[in-house]
């Protein structure tokens, strides 16, 4: 079989599960650490920086960077204050963050269904 025939076969239609499976995924949430943050906040009304850090096993810097990215996207709200003389940072999931997580999970579920051959 010649090269043109093989090339034509490769460029033909691909199954739905592989054709752009990640297309449409919210890239802000899709990153592992950020998905962990929004998932933890979806299950808890408020979590402190230290609680998120311990729960997700992230470093201070890593958590701060990912939380800031979620805050910039409008998915997380950050409140800084003091508990006595100790600084305390708390995070909450915003309504936009809850909607984004829901849409992300629905999209992932559709990819899983397609990969399993379901509708």
Write the layout of secondary structure elements.
Layout: H1 3-10, H2 27-30, H3 32-43, E1 47-48, H4 49-56, H5 60-72, E2 76-83, E3 86-93, H6 95-115
Helix pairs in contact: 3-5
What features would you describe in this structure?
The chain has helices at residues 3-10, 27-30, 32-43, 49-56, 60-72, 95-115; strands spanning 47-48, 76-83, 86-93. It is of the alpha+beta class. It has one domain: Arc Repressor Mutant, subunit A (Orthogonal Bundle), CATH 1.10.10. Strands 1-3-2 form a three-stranded antiparallel sheet. Helix 3 (32-43) crosses helix 5. The longest helix is centred in the last third of the chain and has 21 residues, at 95-115. The radius of gyration is 20 Å and the shape is elongated. The two termini are 35 Å apart. Mean pLDDT is 86; it is low at 3-20.
CATH-defined fold name = Arc Repressor Mutant, subunit A
Tell me, rounded to a whole number, the average pLDDT.
86
Shape: elongated
List segments where confidence is low: pLDDT < 50 over at least 5 consecutive residues.
3-20
What would you give as the CATH superfamily?
Winged helix-like DNA-binding domain superfamily/Winged helix DNA-binding domain
Distance between the termini: 35 Å
Count structural domains: 1
Structural class: alpha+beta
Report the strand count: 3
Order of helices and strands: HHHEHHEEH
Rg (CA only): 20 Å
What would you say the CATH architecture is? Orthogonal Bundle
Specify the helix fraction band: 55-70%
- Can you summarize the main beta sheet? 3 strands, antiparallel
The tally of helices reads 6
Strand content: 15-25%
Q: How do the strands line up in the largest sheet?
A: 1-3-2
